[in-house]
């Protein structure tokens, strides 16, 4: 009969398992790197699914409609609104975009002529004359490259919407799949983390939508009052690019200042002042109000996230940098700070809304104590993407 396993044999088996585990982690990391864009599409689809699901939950809570019917109405309403906007404002926006594209070369010629009459401007022109066609070549080349990639963008949008719709229809299926990857003893905590991530992303989406709408309206109205051409298009560009923190306002300000400069240098100055004023209002008035309901993300981490995810994943990483940072901060807070370090005294600066404690106290007071006899009160309907279909 074979004797009992020796310590050396046990150590060898354990070393083999550890090596296989490390190899598996390396293979998964390499696969994730190669499929990084697909994973970003999945994350973007998850964001849209959270939006669809929470809007459907809100509709279902205030109407007798079941969640499945509410979800269908929400998706149909959003798509219908986008189609209506495209039909009503689309021709005007296309015309304004054509005017914007046509005005850029003329504006650049005017800037070059204006700079050539000053010593500093002449020196700057001499420094950049080695470029093939100067700034105009770069800008027009970028526009041409963007238009040539429109088919790929359309395909990505279709994939994004498909992922979002299927996730929103049956989120429990995918939630259960994730939970089955976690040991049984840790599944309640894993479910709590998923709920926290879903709630955090929903609050961020709601706050971001309000922020983008306010910036678009303020910028568009301000440009219209200043008499700058194309205020509707430039306002929409300002609102959309505001999705990218810090970099977005700068990107939206460039075409607006160029269009204003085509009228006069003073109009360009006032346009720049307008953009600075809008950003000051957003940062000092609007964002503090929004951050009372969403996670207060440290500005330095946002800047580093935009730079880091932009280097790793390109334009898609820049657009999704803030929600990715939010997810990372929630995971670090719950998995490392709370579970590993045992520190439950987390303030709002680590991925929590500023008034979360007050909300928890008020909601507890509204719900009241559990019923006598040990029965638990009926749970509230979920507002995260993991809610069940009615």
From TrEMBL:
Pfam families, per the entry: AI-2E_transport
Chief location: membrane
GO BP field: transmembrane transport
Membrane topology: Multi-pass membrane protein
Spans annotated as Disordered: 347-390
Keyword check for Acetylation: no
Single GO cellular component term: membrane
Cellular localization per UniProt: Membrane
Transmembrane segments: 20-52, 64-89, 147-169, 213-237, 243-261, 268-290, 302-332
Alphabetically ordered keywords of this record: Membrane, Transmembrane, Transmembrane helix
Keyword Hydrolase: no
Entry superkingdom: Bacteria
Family: Belongs to the autoinducer-2 exporter (AI-2E) (TC 2.A.86) family.
Record-given protein name: Putative PurR-regulated permease PerM
Organism: Hasllibacter halocynthiae
Lineage: Bacteria, Pseudomonadati, Pseudomonadota, Alphaproteobacteria, Rhodobacterales
């Amino acid at each position: 009969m074979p004797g009992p396993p020796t310590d050396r044999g046990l150590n060898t088996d354990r070393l083999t398992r550890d090596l296989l585990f490390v190899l598996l982690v390396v293979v998964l990391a390499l696969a994730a790197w190669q499929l990084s864009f697909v994973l970003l599409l999945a994350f973007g689809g998850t964001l849209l699914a959270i939006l669809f699901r929470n809007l459907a939950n809100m509709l279902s809570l205030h109407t007798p409609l079941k969640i499945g019917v509410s979800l269908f109405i929400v998706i149909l309403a959003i798509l219908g609104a986008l189609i209506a906007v495209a039909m009503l404002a689309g021709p005007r926006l296309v015309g304004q975009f054509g005017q914007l594209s046509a005005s850029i070369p003329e504006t650049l010629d005017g800037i070059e002529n204006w700079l050539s009459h000053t010593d500093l401007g002449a020196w700057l022109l001499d420094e950049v004359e080695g470029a093939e066609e100067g700034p105009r070549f770069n800008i027009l080349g970028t526009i041409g490259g963007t238009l040539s990639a429109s088919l790929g963008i359309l395909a990505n949008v279709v994939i994004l919407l498909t992922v979002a719709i299927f996730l929103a229809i049956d989120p429990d299926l995918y939630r259960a799949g994730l939970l089955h990857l976690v040991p049984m003893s840790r599944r309640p905590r894993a479910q709590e983390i998923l709920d926290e991530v879903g709630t955090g992303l929903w609050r961020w989406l709601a706050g971001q939508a309000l922020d983008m709408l306010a910036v678009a309206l303020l910028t568009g109205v301000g440009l219209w009052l200043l008499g700058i051409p194309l205020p509707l298009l430039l306002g929409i560009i300002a609102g959309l690019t505001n999705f990218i923190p810090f970099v977005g306002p700068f990107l939206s300000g460039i075409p607006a200042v160029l269009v204003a400069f085509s009228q006069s240098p003073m109009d360009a100055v006032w346009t720049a002042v307008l953009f600075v004023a809008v950003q000051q209002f957003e940062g000092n008035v609007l964002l503090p109000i929004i951050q009372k309901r969403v996670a207060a993300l440290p500005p330095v981490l946002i800047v580093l996230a935009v730079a880091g995810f932009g280097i790793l994943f390109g334009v898609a990483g820049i657009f999704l940098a803030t929600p990715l940072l939010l997810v990372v901060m929630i995971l670090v807070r719950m998995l490392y700070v709370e579970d590993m370090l045992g520190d439950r005294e987390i303030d709002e600066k680590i991925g929590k809304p500023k008034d979360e404690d007050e909300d928890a106290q008020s909601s507890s007071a509204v719900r009241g104590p559990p019923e006598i006899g040990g029965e638990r009160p009926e749970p509230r309907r979920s507002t995260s993407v993991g809610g069940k279909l009615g």
